Amino acid sequence: MVDVAKNLREVLDNLPKGVRLVAVSKFHPKEYIEAAYNAGQRIFGESHEQELAKKVTELPDDIEWHFIGHLQTNKVKYIAPYISMIEAVDSLKLLKEINKQAAKHDRVIKVLLELHIAEEETKYGLTLDACRHLLDDGQWHDLQNVHICGLMMMASNVDDQEQIRREMTLAADFFDEVKAKYFADDPEFKERSWGMSHDYKIAVQCRSTLVRVGTSIFGPRVY
Q: How far, in whole angstroms, is CA 177 from its chain's centroid?
């Protein structure tokens, strides 16, 4: 049995003030989530809408669920009633669909724009230029039921810590550019979501405000 509470404490002890933990609970049983919840954790990350829908009905109402995986537009309607934040928005089309589904439930859903900075082709996300183009286009201003609250990225899955640091620093610098140009008057645009189990300690040095940690807390995934 994994000692979830002990593992959670160890991760939290490594997080400076101002950095919040998204406990990545996908493919882990509800008992593990309950153990983390009982130890004080409230933000959990999932990436499959069917698994998430089941957990939402079985677990406490005050959990803040973050959708952290690649989200297809046709799946948005299933999570729109309850999701707190969608962390990986990589197109205007997806942004518009989230807005449409959120409006049906009279909700405003927080989102992060996902950047593709890592050198791996398997990663999703907007290039920096594509992100600039999306924001310059301005259509997002008309979407009343989504709120862009920051940026998200995944660093390359490599052992080279300097490469990871470079990619995260680039994301942090780009955040400053976007904040100054498009969101200077919006205090809610503040989230920098990067860092996972193997690199979250580097991420907090690169000004991350949200780290997504699963394996270090819950152990290997149960598929």
A: 20
Nearest CA among 151, 134, 149 for reference residue 92 = 134
- Return the structure tokens found at 123: 């990663």
Q: % helix / strand / coil in the chain, to the nearest 5? A: 45, 20, 40
Over residues 61-119, the pLDDT tens digits come to: 999 999 999 999 999 999 999 999 999 999 999 999 999 999 999 999 999 999 999 87
DSSP 39: T
* Residue pair 213/197 in contact by the 8 Å Cβ criterion: yes
Token readout for 202 is: 């580097």
Cα dihedral value 211, 212, 213, 214, nearest 10 = 170
Please report, as a single letter, which amino acid is at residue 104: K
